[in-house]
């Protein structure tokens, strides 16, 4: 493989990830290249998987075949693998090699529909986190009645401290600016009510931390789920 070019977006695809892999993964790449799924800029793919399973599928999609490189691997992360097991025993997997090539600067991003826990663990192990961020989070952009918004974390962490929630808010602001194009996004802390006494101790402490972080975010306060989708 060669390093990514400045005029293109190189996306690493874990072809072995997901319940219907590799067929659905390759089909998804074809939708992007065909323009069915809009994408800014020129895209090409680095596809990681077992050749005996991926190459027959890839041969059916000539557009993907012409705009990708294939990386043969000998292993794959299973949906039943614990994150700790994947870290120790899946270092020859498609997921591991894809994330490793991101670390090397050979691709711009990694896409996997595979084991989420394993992906988060492998990514944190190989890529680390940026300064002042202790834990990764999964972010998703969703529509509301007025516009779109980003919510995090939606599954990377079972329990979160107040400091972690503050860090998620900071990352959410960065996501909203970079991906959603917002110049001054507001931050709402999801809770069971809008009163300051509502919620767990960690949520209440996070409220105080976010309110004090005026230089980093425009803090709205507590927000209930139904209000989020109304665009408040």
Automatic annotation (TrEMBL):
Location(s) in or outside the cell: Cytoplasm
Summary of the function given for this chain in its UniProt record: Catalyzes the reversible formation of acyl-phosphate (acyl-PO(4)) from acyl-[acyl-carrier-protein] (acyl-ACP). This enzyme utilizes acyl-ACP as fatty acyl donor, but not acyl-CoA.
Primary localization: cytoplasm
Family recorded in the similarity comment: Belongs to the PlsX family.
Protein name: Phosphate acyltransferase
GO biological process, alphabetically ordered: fatty acid biosynthetic process; phospholipid biosynthetic process
UniProt GO cellular component terms: cytoplasm
Pathway: Lipid metabolism; phospholipid metabolism
Cytoplasm as UniProt keyword: yes
Reactions it catalyzes: a fatty acyl-[ACP] + phosphate = an acyl phosphate + holo-[ACP]
GO MF term set: phosphate:acyl-[acyl carrier protein] acyltransferase activity
EC number(s) stated in the UniProt entry for this protein: 2.3.1.274
Key words, A-Z: Cytoplasm, Lipid biosynthesis, Lipid metabolism, Phospholipid biosynthesis, Phospholipid metabolism, Transferase
InterPro entries xref list: FA_synthesis (IPR003664), Phospholipid_synth_PlsX-like (IPR012281)
Subunit annotation: Homodimer. Probably interacts with PlsY.
Top-rank EC class of the record's enzyme: transferase
């Amino acid at each position: 493989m060669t390093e990514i070019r400045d005029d293109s977006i190189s996306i690493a695809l874990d072809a072995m990830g997901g319940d219907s892999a590799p067929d659905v993964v390759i089909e998804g790449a074809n939708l992007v290249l065909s323009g069915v799924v809009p994408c800014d800029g020129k895209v090409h793919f680095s596809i990681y998987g077992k050749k005996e399973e991926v190459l027959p599928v890839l041969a059916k999609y000539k557009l993907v075949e012409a705009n990708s490189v294939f990386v043969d691997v000998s292993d794959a992360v299973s949906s039943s693998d614990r994150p700790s097991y994947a870290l120790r025993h899946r270092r020859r997997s498609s997921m591991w090699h894809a994330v490793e090539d991101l670390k090397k600067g050979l691709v711009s991003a990694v896409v996997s529909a595979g084991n989420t826990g394993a992906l988060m663990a492998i990514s944190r192990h190989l890529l680390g986190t940026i300064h002042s961020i202790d834990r990764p989070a999964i972010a998703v952009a969703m529509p509301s009645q007025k516009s779109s918004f980003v919510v995090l974390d939606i599954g990377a962490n079972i329990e979160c401290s107040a400091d972690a929630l503050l860090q998620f808010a900071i990352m959410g602001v960065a996501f909203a600016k970079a991906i959603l194009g917002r110049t001054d996004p507001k931050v709402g802390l999801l809770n069971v009510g809008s009163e300051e006494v509502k919620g767990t101790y960690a949520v209440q402490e996070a409220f105080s931390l976010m309110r004090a972080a005026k230089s980093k975010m425009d803090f709205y306060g507590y927000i209930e789920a139904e209000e989020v989708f109304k665009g408040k």
